[in-house]
Design brief:
The complex is a heterodimer.
Chain A (H helix, E strand, L loop, with lengths): L4 H6 L10 H4 L12 H9 L8 H5 L6 H9 L3 H11 L3 H7 L6 H4 L12 H13 L15 E5 L3 H12 L3 E5 L8 H4 L8 H13 L3 E3 L10 H6 L5 E4 L4 E3 L12 E3 H10 L17 E5 L3 H12 L4 E6 L10 H9 L3 E4 L1 E8 L5 E14 L5 E5 L5 E4 L2 E4 L3 E3 L2 H4 L25 E3 L2 H4 L4 H20 L9
Chain B lengths: L1 E10 L2 E7 L1 H6 L5 E5 L7 E9 L4 E7 L3 H7 L6 E2 L1 E6 L10 E7 L2 H14 L3 E8 L8 H5 L4 E6 L6 E2 L2 H11 L6 E5 L2 H11 L5 E5 L15 E4 L2 E4 H4 L2 E3 L5 H7 L4 H21 L1
Parallel strand pairs in B: 8-9, 8-12, 9-10, 10-11, 12-13
Antiparallel strand pairs in B: 1-2, 1-6, 2-5, 3-4, 3-7, 4-5, 13-16, 14-15
Helix pairs in contact in B: 2-9, 5-6
Classes of the chains: A alpha/beta, B alpha/beta.
The complex binds flavin-adenine dinucleotide (FAD) (2 copies) and FE2/S2 (inorganic) cluster.
The site of one flavin-adenine dinucleotide has 42 residues of chain A, from helix 10, helix 15, helix 17 and helix 19.
């Protein structure tokens, strides 16, 4: 029996079960425990099933949110999963890492004013986790078309494109530079937010659908794009090699021992499993006091990882205020629960050394917010004479990345913008015929869901290109 | 998996291995390296490709045992396989032509300069190789270098073989009395050696290239762990190098960063050695 809108309005947003902050900050197991079936159903009943649902437009891949939520409310999880998977190949991942509060949930009518939006992300995760335990998920592949597509990079953009192309009957080979699959999902985002099993399950689904994955191939040096097309017999290439090179601030002391880019720190811990040293061989400097610079998801992941490696004082230094922090709200909230110190409105000046060449602290200066800058955010300005020192043994810089030139250097006919990102047209095609690109390499550092959206769009365009239906013409 | 098809000891603790790695073999140029992982849970370490055969699809590595990973690698025999090999990585050497090139290898650094000898020779250079080791046993690749270089000058600390003294001392002599002026020096080895070479050639303004050996992780520019300071700029050795102008390199910072994990490295090595000892006593 359907509830009336009034009855729906009376249900309050269901909280996510979280493991206790103190306990979980000692390990790498997942923080969120997920909804129970009962809670999911209750949360789903909160959805007002708007005729003109605004949430759909807030979703970069346009998931029919009211439809899947209604199926959850009706207890038909099969149908819910079908709706989700129609538009999103990796819902178990996006349900965990999308910035929902800036996307679907921001548009939700129930979130207006003092209200709370429907927990779309948590419901998405619930359905995806349910679907993962069902074994009948693999749809039989289409009749092979005989076309072959090479995908460069196994991050969310590459994996999504691979799945979509295989579904359409094309032969797909994914080339990955590292020894493990998943891109940032694997080496960047920690287990406590996105457990490896979830990535592995997605990858298994792909290989079951016939996708071949070849690790240890750095396209550009091990094989070039031209070789893929001319010698290896691929009919099209999708480049999704991600964002790449970490940027350092350029302050004194960055070559001391104990200074890391977030990428290195997280790669050592997540990909190389340094938290298990010496059972895994790769070490990491474990500090009692760690300072992380930045305010995004990468900074949040780094500081919470440092905490789990044993830092009793784990501090985040960010030059703007909390409102400007680009990290997901939930991560900021979790970091607070885990006892992370926030030093907002301050900026690093230099990293200080002890006699042995190790980090002993970081000098910072307080900031105040001035006039809005180009990004519309108020520009932070240093306050004269406010310098102070935070003592620490490790400093992790999480201030951004720039495009990795390894591949593009060897493919000069792919046109780049001034920041080194690949320029693509509406269909995701680059200036080189038959070569498409998407994800962070075209956008600069963005999000998982946007990378997936690019992969999906490019796969559709590649399909048209190969089969000659509305073949896109190069327009760059 | 990458199969070992040949493995032989060159000197105590230095092994030459031939691996099947057709894609690497096809593209590799002198000066480039691979990153490998011996097994699951293993560390990723960089090793220079000493030689390659594109037709046979093989690459040669020359590995010196210094810690757990190199010990595990060198314990492998023909027919065994290693988990991961990625490459070729790094920029190929910018080779000079029609001049006098001096190659300097200290210890396993000799493996790093070895592939340059043939390449320089085919560009019509006169090639002199100065190679050093603690004692005679530690001089590696002398014969192989001899096949490509015009002259090979071994040096030992104790004088047990060749010149008594360091490779820098030998270079100093060569600069003083070479019949042909030296155009380019290529050096690889321990940081103090490379620094000494740089200091020696600087006053003569001899073009000097060093192959740096910072700690690496991915080898693709993604982590920045391999950063070195060259001419006041931060460079990533895995993509911008590993070779740089010796006169611009901040060797002190490099030497310092190489010690970052000394305690952990020792622990890993001891655990590994005692595990091996246990296995031996069981058999
Ligand atoms: C620590 C961290 C936390 C983040 N948290 C979030 C979050 O919570 N929510 C969110 O939406 N976004 C988050 N992001 C951003 C998000 O992860 C990225 O936008 C997304 O992963 C980009 O996907 P991609 O497929 O373009 O590239 P990537 O995920 O970067 O994958 C690229 C892959 O290509 C491989 N590769 C690179 N070069 C080559 C080559 N030459 N040949 C072969 N393979 C190559 C790389 O090894 C990598 O595996 C986070 C990013 C980081 C670093
Ligand atoms: C571009 C490059 C080319 C190289 N070529 C050769 C070669 O042809 N033959 C050879 O024998 N060695 C070579 N090396 C050095 C080799 O990588 C190290 O000896 C090896 O990583 C040591 O690993 P381990 O576990 O055995 O020793 P560990 O006990 O881990 O370390 C011993 C020492 O090796 C260095 N080291 C440790 N880990 C790394 C790492 N991940 N990357 C780089 N250095 C590290 C450190 O200085 C450390 O103190 C090269 C290094 C670089 C950067
Ligand atoms: S090894 Fe990671 S950037 Fe060079």
């Amino acid at each position: 029996m359907a509830l009336t809108p009034k009855e729906r309005m009376q249900i309050t947003r269901q909280p996510m079960r979280e493991r206790d902050g103190a306990a979980r900050s000692q390990d790498f197991s997942e923080v969120n425990e997920g909804f129970t079936a009962e809670v999911a159903r209750l949360e789903a009943e909160r959805c007002l099933r708007c005729k003109d649902a605004k949430c759909i437009a807030g979703c970069p891949v346009g998931i029919d949110i009211p439809a899947f939520v209604a199926h959850v409310a009706d207890g038909d999880l099969h149908a819910a999963a079908d709706v989700l998977l129609r538009d999103n190949a990796l819902p178990g991942i996006t349900g965990r890492v999308c910035p929902q509060e800036e996307q679907c949930e921001q548009r939700c009518i129930r979130g207006k004013g003092a209200g709370c939006s429907v927990a779309v992300g948590h419901l998405e995760r619930f359905v995806a986790d349910w679907a993962r335990t069902q074994s009948d998920a693999v749809a039989p592949p289409r009749e092979p078309t005989g076309f072959r597509v090479a995908v460069v990079g196994s991050g969310p953009a590459g994996l999504t494109a691979a799945g979509e192309l295989a579904r359409r009957g094309h032969g797909v080979t994914v080339y990955e530079a590292l020894h493990a699959v998943g891109g940032v999902l694997r080496y960047g985002i920690p287990n406590f937010r996105l457990p490896n099993e979830i990535i592995e399950a997605e990858v298994e689904r792909l290989t079951a659908a016939g996708v071949e994955i070849v690790t240890n191939v750095v396209v550009g040096t091990t094989l070039t794009v031209d070789e893929l097309m001319q010698e290896e017999g691929f009919d099209a290439v999708f480049i999704a090699n991600g964002a790449g090179l970490p940027v350092f601030m350029g302050i004194p002391g960055e070559d001391l021992i104990g200074v890391y880019s977030a990428n290195e720190f997280l790669t050592r811990v997540n990909l190389m499993e340094a938290y298990r040293f010496p059972d895994a061989d790769t070490p990491v400097v474990a500090a009692k006091r760690a300072v992380v610079i930045g305010g995004g998801n990468t900074a949040m992941d780094s500081v919470r990882t440092a905490r789990r490696l044993g830092a009793t004082e784990a501090t985040l230094v960010y030059r703007r205020s909390r409102a400007e922090m680009p990290a997901r709200k939930e991560e900021v909230h979790h970091a607070e629960q885990e006892g992370i110190n926030f030093r907002l409105l301050c900026s690093p000046v230099q990293i200080l050394a002890n006699e042995a060449g190790w980090v002993r602290g970081i000098e910072c200066v307080e900031m105040e917010l001035g006039e809005p800058d180009a990004s519309g955010r108020r520009r932070p300005m240093p306050v004269k004479g406010s310098e102070f020192v935070i003592e620490c043994e490790v400093v992790i810089e999480a201030i951004g990345t720039r495009a990795n030139p390894l591949l593009t250097q060897t493919t000069p006919d792919i046109v780049l913008n001034e920041r080194g990102n690949i320029i693509v047209d509406e269909d995701g095609m680059t200036s080189k015929r038959g070569v498409f690109a998407g994800g962070d390499i075209t956008r600069g550092a963005a999000t998982v869901i946007l990378a997936m959206g690019d992969g999906k769009k490019a796969a559709a365009a590649i399909d048209r290109y190969l089969t000659g239906v509305d073949a896109p013409a190069a327009t760059i | 998996m990458f199969t070992i098809i040949r493995a032989e000891w060159l000197s105590p603790g230095v092994k030459r291995m031939r691996l099947r790695a057709p894609l690497v073999a096809r593209h590799r140029q002198p000066g480039q390296f691979v990153i490998l992982r011996v097994q699951e849970t293993g560390e990723r370490i960089p090793l220079t490709v000493a030689d390659s055969d594109a037709d046979a699809g093989t690459i040669d590595l020359i590995v010196k045992v210094v810690g757990k990973t190199t010990a595990m690698l060198c314990a492998k025999a023909r027919g065994e396989a290693i988990a991961d090999v990625a490459g070729p990585l790094g920029r190929p050497t910018e080779l000079s032509s029609d001049g006098h090139a001096v190659l300097i290898g200290g210890g396993v650094g000799t493996a790093v300069i070895y592939p340059l000898a043939h390449a320089l020779r085919s560009l019509r250079n006169r090639v002199t190789a100065i190679i050093g080791g603690r004692t005679r046993e530690f001089i590696v690749l002398e014969e192989e270098l001899g096949a490509a270089a015009d002259e090979v000058l071994p040096c030992t600390d104790d004088g047990s073989y060749g010149f008594q003294g360091t490779v820098a001392d030998r270079l100093s002599n060569l600069i003083a009395c070479a019949e042909e002026p030296i155009d380019t020096v290529y050096a690889a080895g321990p940081v103090p050696m490379m620094r000494a070479i740089a200091d020696l050639t600087r006053p003569y303004a001899i073009r000097t290239i060093v192959s740096l050996n910072p700690i690496m992780v991915d080898g693709t520019g993604m982590c920045g762990g391999c950063r070195v300071n060259v001419g006041g700029e931060t460079k990533y050795a895995c993509v911008d190098g590993p070779e740089f102008d010796a006169h611009e390199v901040d060797f002190a910072a490099l030497a310092n960063r190489l010690t970052a994990y000394r305690v952990q490295e020792q622990l890993a090595r001891e655990r590994y050695d005692s595990k091996c000892a246990l296995e031996v006593s069981r058999h």
